[in-house]
Fold this protein.
Amino acid sequence: MPLTIVIKIGTSSLTQDNGNLAIATIATLVETLCHLRRQGHRVVLVSSGAVGVGCARIGLQEKPKTIAGKQAVAAIGQGRLMRVYDDLFTTQEQAIAQILLTRTDLVQRRRYLNASNTFQELFRLGVIPIVNENDTVAVEELKFGDNDTLSAMVASLVEADWLFLLTDVEHLYSADPRSHPDATPIHLVERMEELAELQVETGGAGTGWGTGGMETKIHAARIATSAGVRTVITSSTAPANIEKILAGEPLGTHFAPHKSVSSARKRWIAHGLIPAGKLYLDSGAVTAICDKNKSLLAAGITAVDGDFHHDDAVVLCDREGREVARGLVNYTSTELQKIRGIKSADIPTILGYEGAETVVHRDNLVLS
Ligand code: GLU
């Protein structure tokens, strides 16, 4: 059966210590992806490297510190990177496409659907899309930030069966194996809570060139598995392992999918959107939305935080500020300041016009 497979590779795997490209790794990766394509699978590559390659191209020893500097080197490196991919894929007679995304592209529903249609069309044409963040235009507050997160969102967008996060270790370990020789490898994570139970130390940021680390990989696994995508962390030095894993060999660390968020639209609400505010709820409202699958009404809101418009995403919290859900709101923050704690029947009198019946309708609400 044809599968949809997203594979993410980071800068530290794509480059050597001196900043030059790790051609052998990239060539093996390309062969593996072409092989998967020939078996009829739909394949997406999420590749970092624009910043690293851009720096190497103009002889910089480290990443620029300023935003404009990073955006400039990404612009230099992205074309170079695609040139290398295109040359290698062409040797295998495989067409590729470049897709550069910013978070805004997945925040607005219409752009999200457009992006989704483009992927589907490329699959239909037998092309392998190569995705990166559109670093040259992405503004700081609207960045995915790291390509692990981007790859998880793409996996959710294309409703992938598998997400492979290729990195410089074979597994996720109980601690950083470089500093803790007794760290044990983890083979399967059935539920994300197990990581806390195992007290897995994920460490902080990754290498100087990329931005990831284990933390962002686990965050990515959380997003992908909740979208029903089986996620695997495995070594980038043997891309051929991807095929072995698909054939059932127990390599890498697997995160079991659990599709807690059923529809693509709800997954977009849960992970695609950037919340513009927070609503604090009384305990009755928390029970109604969490246990009874009800919509949120104005009466259950105790406080409103942020400045938002109709249809913006908001976080719903209990009185203590713990997130319980996310959703699209039917009122602006200004309106909600006036009608919080008020019975629905009294809203028209207070606002002077008929508003929506619910503040967040249950169809637009996703439990956290
Ligand atoms: N988009 C960045 C690049 O291509 C990499 C982000 C990351 O390392 O996760 O250089």
Summary: DSSP finds 14 helices and 15 strands in the chain. The longest strand covers residues 4-9.
